[in-house]
Each structure stands twice: as structure tokens, then as C-alpha cells.
Amino acid sequence: MPSWDYRTSTTGYYDRHAAEFCESTFTVDVRALYVPFLREISEGGAILDAGCGSGRDSLAFLRRGYRVVSIDASREMVAAATKHTGQQALHLTFDEIDFTDEFDGIWACGSLVHVARRDLHSVFSRFSQALKPKGVIYLSFKYGDTERMEGERFFNDMNEATLGLLLGGHPELELIHQWVTEDLRNYTRGYQNVLNALVRRKAI
To answer: How far apart are CA 8 and CA 62, in angstroms?
Structure first.
């Protein structure tokens, strides 16, 4: 199990390496990942970009006419997203999310990877509360089944089995689709797969 301060260490990494992280991620083409997510959201719908990083995806959704709220635990990432999108991002951690029935979709691309399994149930409960009935969550994890530190950053790797166990504790959520892709930006760190999933909040 990770130590109690794993989030402080991880957030600190992004505060210190914000410029480098933005440079390596902002131009990565992830449009193929948008397709199944946006297919479930009506035109002009509201999206929460949970762990917005550089603001790449928030900007893409704004340009497509969606209403977007961008949040991140790193102050430097909040500043970067605000600059890139032209609208104020919010400095919020996952455990500070307190929306109710507000969003048609939640986009959590590569952000939940930094949440320990012991804390994911609370995050999923907050996500469920923030979604409108039939709202959807896109989430992604590095493919695997371990919790680990990589330098200063904590990673929670998930596969189909571990994600299934997690969702089993949330009867209000149902898995729509899951698929595996190659990480598009980590060739220098070796070949890595990513588990992608689309989850819906049930109507009742």
C-alpha cells in the first residue's frame, strides 16, 4: 500500500515539471479516444475534465461546442490549462469534487492512474454524484495489476479484472465498453499498453 503522502509527492512532481509535461503531451493526437466518449454526450453537453493537465482535451471539447469545467490537483497544471483554453481551470483534488447531477460526461484521461485503489471507491462515488443520470465516464490506466512508485509519482496499474472488482463496489455504475491501446507518448520509456473504459451512471 502506498504511504499516506503519495498524492503530495505526485502533485509536487507535476508542479515542478509542468512545462516539460505540457510539451510532451499537448500535441499528442488522442482524437480516436474522443469518439466513443462524445458519442454518448449530446451536442453542447457539460463535461468535467478531471485531471486536466495541460488543458489539451478541455480545449478540444470546447472547440467542439461542449461546456467544460477543467480541474487539476497541481497549481501549475491549472495555470497551464487556463492559458491554453482561455478559461479559468479550477484547483481541485478528486476528493474535493462536490458537484451534483451536473455533467453529461466526465473525462479522466490518465489521471486516475495516480489514485490508490483504497481511495478510488471514494472518487468513483464523487464522480457518480457529479454525473447526470445516464452520464458517462471515460477513464484510462496503464495496463497491469500493481501499485508502485515511479520516481516521485505514484501509479495504480489496472487490468480488466481489477477494474471489474472496483466497479463491483458501485452498483450505480455499469461498464459500457473497455479496450486496450498503446500509450502514444511513452516510447522512450518502453512499450506500454493502456486500459481504456467507458462507464455509465444508471438512470435509477
So the answer is: 30
C-alpha cell at 134: 445516464
Contact (Cβ atoms closer than 8 angstroms) between residue 126 and residue 170: no
Closest C-alpha to 143, from 198, 190, 196, 199:
196
- Rounded to two decimals, the pTM is 0.94
Quote the CA–CA distance of 179 and 27 in Å, as a whole number.
23
| N-term to C-term CA, the chain | 34
Q: How far is it, in rounded angstroms, from Cα 100 to Cα 48?
A: 12
Q: What is the pLDDT of residues 124-175, one digit of tens each?
A: 999 999 999 999 999 999 999 999 999 899 999 999 999 999 999 999 999 9
Domains of the chain: 6-201 (3.40.50.150)
Which of 197, 143, 140, 142 lies closest to 174, judged by CA? 197
